[in-house]
Design brief:
By secondary structure, the chain is an alpha/beta fold. The chain has three domains: about 5-65, Beta Barrel (OB fold (Dihydrolipoamide Acetyltransferase, E2P)), CATH 2.40.50; about 90-120 and about 285-445, Rossmann fold, CATH 3.40.50.150; about 125-270, OB fold (Dihydrolipoamide Acetyltransferase, E2P), CATH 2.40.50. Helices cover about 25% and strands about 30% of the residues. The protein has helices spanning about 85-105, 165-175, 220-235, 285-300, 320-325, 335-350, 360-365, 385-395, 410-420, and strands spanning about 5-10, 15, 20-25, 25-30, 40-45, 50-60, 125-135, 140-145, 155, 195-200, 210-215, 235-245, 255-260, 265-270, 275-280, 310, 330-335, 355-360, 375-380, 395-405, 425-430, 440-445. The protein has a seven-stranded mixed beta sheet, covered by helices on one side. A seven-stranded mixed beta sheet has the order 18-17-16-19-20-22-21, with helices on both faces. The longest helix has 18 residues, at about 85-105.
Length: about 450
């Protein structure tokens, strides 16, 4: 197989990264923008020892699941990889991805349930992070999303997976920034002002918190004046913040944020509980799908009478707060102090008195105590849990572990370890949090 060589192939399934899998003379070929059951003419774009990559030249016989994407920017924007596939089939493909991870990584034979779909498949994304740049000659501000496998920004004026108000706010910033002598960021030269626009939009009251991430160590007057102009332009904006990030890094937010006008948060409502979401607060991007997950977890915990619950990797203690009314006691542990601050405010707002908060690493906290919990909720980042944290969780859990994961691969790895330690996996339930992408959230119920 050679570079630029052409073949006619049939797509068997999708990889865990959402690319089509075909075979040529027994070798795996990963094909971009391909759907299972497609017959395609492809061109090889990269040759490796054990596999190759290819692009589609011609769709000879399309899969019956191919549809016309509802976003006009789909082909050049890298955000919604699967939007050309009908939604029901997307869910089936995601289930297969989870099953593949469980079998190949975890050697787990627990059946995977059908994914619970997102209540909305348009305007569902309520956290928006747009990189910003500027053209060399015209000095036009660009804001949108990166072109696939690059850091080239696609200037997007309409994104159907986010609330319409976000398009309007981003376009206002794009048009008005030069009037305040604010330039777009040049990543290669590390020059310019505005690096990112971050918007958190509430699905409850439609209010938006806008954060301007600037390449600076100081909040200059021009930033403050621009923030006020944005705040005054839109009734839906609850507040505008400035975040300082002058480091040469791909990390979006710096460590220092100041609210310039309005409130430093938006309120979100999940299971009748109110949460205050700040500029750097971790909270699910799809609140309505998140609520389905909270309901599922709460229903599982309701099978026990007045249980004690550990809410580990708690963030703003959303799980702990959501299930608190059916528990004797909840202990929420989170190492980010700002998240604990937001959690404390949520406890006060919701008049909750049976949730304890600890600003500490989960493993260190568990090593410092002797008590056991009836149920532990694990909601780690994409990298999953460490062996040490899993060992400590087992020592301190009597009945069940509820493992919430956004990464099937690390979930499968951690479940394999727990099974080796004598646990049994009762069920694996996927939830579609990130529509039209290859990402899928899962909740595993584990008997200790």
């Amino acid at each position: 197989m050679n570079l630029n060589e052409e073949f006619v192939v049939n797509i068997e399934k999708l990889s865990n990264l959402g690319t089509g899998i075909a075979r040529v003379d027994g070798q795996v070929v990963f094909v971009e923008n391909a759907c299972p059951e497609d017959e395609l003419k492809i061109k090889i774009t990269k040759v490796n020892k054990n596999f190759s990559n290819a692009e589609v030249i011609e769709i000879i016989n399309p899969s019956p699941h191919r549809i016309t994407p509802f976003c006009p920017m789909h082909k050049i924007c890298g955000s919604c990889q699967l939007q050309f596939i009908d939604y029901e089939f997307q869910l089936l493909l995601k289930k297969q991805m989870v099953e593949d991870a469980m079998k190949t990584i975890g050697h787990i034979d627990t059946p995977v349930n059908n994914p619970i779909p997102s209540p909305e498949i348009k305007a569902f994304r309520h956290k928006i992070q747009c990189p910003v740049s500027q053209t060399k000659v015209s000095k036009k501000i660009l804001a949108g999303y990166y072109k696939p496998q690059s850091h080239e920004i696609i200037n997007i004026k309409y994104c159907p997976i986010q609330p319409e108000i976000c398009d309007k706010i981003i376009d206002f910033i794009r048009q008005k920034a030069p009037e305040y002598n604010i330039s777009g960021y040049n990543e290669k030269k590390h020059t310019g002002d505005l690096r990112h626009i971050v918007i958190r939009c509430s699905s409850q009251n439609k209010k938006c918190l806008v954060t301007l991430v600037v390449n600076s160590s100081k909040i200059f007057d021009k930033y403050k004046k621009f923030a006020h102009s944005i705040f005054n332009e839109f009734e839906n904006i609850s507040g505008v913040c400035i975040n300082l990030n002058n480091k040469k890094t791909n990390v979006i937010l710096g460590s220092e944020t100041e609210c310039i006008c309005g409130n430093e948060f938006v309120e979100e409502k999940i299971l009748d509980k109110i949460f205050k979401i700040g500029a750097d607060t971790f909270f699910q991007v799809n609140p309505k799908s998140a609520e389905n997950i909270f309901k599922y977890v709460k229903n599982e915990i309701s099978k026990y009478k007045n249980p004690t619950v550990l809410d580990a990797y708690a963030g703003i203690a959303a799980f702990g707060i959501a299930v608190s009314d059916i528990c004797k006691q909840v202990v929420s542990v989170e190492e980010n102090k700002n998240s604990i601050k937001n959690a404390r405010e949520a406890l006060e707002t919701n008049n909750i008195t049976n949730v304890e908060l600890y600003a500490q690493d989960t493993t260190k906290y568990l090593k410092s105590i002797k008590k056991k919990f009836d149920i532990t909720i694990l909601d780690p980042p994409r990298k999953g849990c460490t062996i040490e944290s899993l060992d400590e969780t087992l020592k301190h859990t009597r009945e069940k572990i509820i493992y919430v994961s956004c990464n099937p691969a690390t979930l499968a790895r951690d479940l394999k370890y727990l099974i080796e330690k004598g646990c049994t996996v009762e069920s694996i339930q996927p939830f579609d949090m990130f529509c039209h992408t290859f990402h899928i959230e899962n909740v595993a119920i584990i008997n200790v």
